[in-house]
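We include this case.
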Amino acid sequence: MEIKKEEIQMESIFHRISVRKYKENEVEQEKIELLLRAAMAAPSACNQQPWEFYVVTDKNVIRELSEASPYAKCAKDAP
């Protein structure tokens, strides 16, 4: 049985997870750039591309940001 590309995509969408615990490893720059390129390739209304992305790697800033919202507490230990 052949798995179609669409099935893999839908599987990813419907079976996503919410990560709340992180490894101590830093995220490689190449992975960050790949994720940003993928995010920028996402469609937007009238191709306006109204997004802004911030990459934060400073542990102190990440902890401060995690306190900005009650829903962001789990991000305090993110790499």
In short: The longest helix spans residues 29-40. Residues 24 and 79 are 6 Å apart (CA to CA).
